[in-house]
Amino acid sequence: MITRRGFLRFIGGSFLSVASFSAYAVGIEPMLLTHVKRYALTPPHWTAGLKLRVVALADIHACRPWMTPERIASLAEEANALKPDLIVLLGDYIAGMRLVSQRVTPPEWAGALSGLKAPLGVLSILGNHDWWADGFAQRAEVGPTIARKALEKAGITVLENDAVRLEKDGHGVWIAGLADQLALLPKKKHEPPRGLDDLDGTLAKISDAAPVILLAHEPDIFPKVPWRVSLTLSGHTHGGQVRLFGFSPIVPSQFGNRYAYGHVVENDRNLIVSGGLGFSNLPIRFGMRPEILQIDLG
Ligand SMILES: [Fe+2]
Question: Which superkingdom (predicted)?
Fold first, then answer.
């Protein structure tokens, strides 16, 4: 039988374990353990001799106290320090969470992102939260959203069903950006959000044989992405925010864990899903540190 002292020690120990776990999952892992997740690959349809370093930031979800303009500015410096050829932003700049002490306005977070610098530029797409937070755009069912205007004012190109051709060392490369697949909130309960994505229309803008990188906030588009696209980059899932032994209990994707996190290869098509930087509903991360992606192609 357990003694009274043993019982109290057990209770005290459990309390301390819960308290230290909470401090870790709410404070230490999310705030302090940001790391650079590196990938190196030669995807299909890649041009021999084209070496491209892409750095990607996903799911910033700006808000106080978790993702302040100061923290975003320091993430931008970290991204620049990786000496990328190109920086891409994968959407969800705006926070949807209620557990915030104060909002961070679009000029504030976009101003912090304006510090991003790369020789081939900074390209971005929007996420569902960037649409959902904009009441006017929701009612009108059309942009430009406040997020888009803020990014453009900060000198960052926004791709919504659009593509741009870049050139490095005489080799072309296309960056295509899909409009958000969950952009419009349902008008009636129990209906799913509607997307504004137009994959065929986006890829129709590719006018030569140079390789294509597709930016798509939600990875759920991936089964429809043709083999012609060398690499798809996504965010949105946050890797589930809690991930243990390669499994995330909660993933905002109709495919569950299939596209929850990391490098996925299906039928010789490549997808990389970032675990992102911020939080969606709860300020908890465990087994899924905030990350900056560095992808070396070539
Ligand atoms: Fe999202």
Answer: Bacteria
Mean pLDDT of 50-74: 96
Q: Tell how far the Cα of 154 is from the centroid of ligand 1, in angstroms.
A: 21
Centre of ligand 1 from the C-alpha of residue 156, in Å: 19
Ligand 1 center–CA 62 separation, angstroms: 13
User: Is the pLDDT score of 5 beyond 70?
Assistant: no
Integer Cα distance of 16 and 22 in angstroms: 10
Residues with CB under 5 A from ligand 1 (ion): 92, 127-128, 236
Neighbours of 25 (CB within 10 A): 18
Cα–ligand 1 centroid distance for 155 (angstroms): 22
CB atoms within 10 A of CB 156: 20
How far is Cα 36 from Cα 18, in angstroms, rounded to an integer? 29
Question: Mean pLDDT over all residues of the chain?
Answer: 92
Ligand 1 centre distance from Cα of residue 160 (Å): 15
Cα distance between residue 163 and residue 178, in whole Å: 9
Q: Compute, in angstroms, the gap from residue 271 CA to the centroid of ligand 1.
A: 16
Question: How many angstroms does the Cα of residue 239 sit away from the middle of ligand 1?
Answer: 11
Burial zone of 259 (CB within 10 Å; 0-12 exposed, 13-18 middle, 19+ buried):
buried
DSSP H or E run through 92? none
- pLDDT score recorded for residue 284: 85
- The rounded Å distance from CA 81 to ligand 1 centre is 26
Confidence label for 96 from pLDDT (cuts 50, 70 and 90) = confident
- pTM here? 0.92
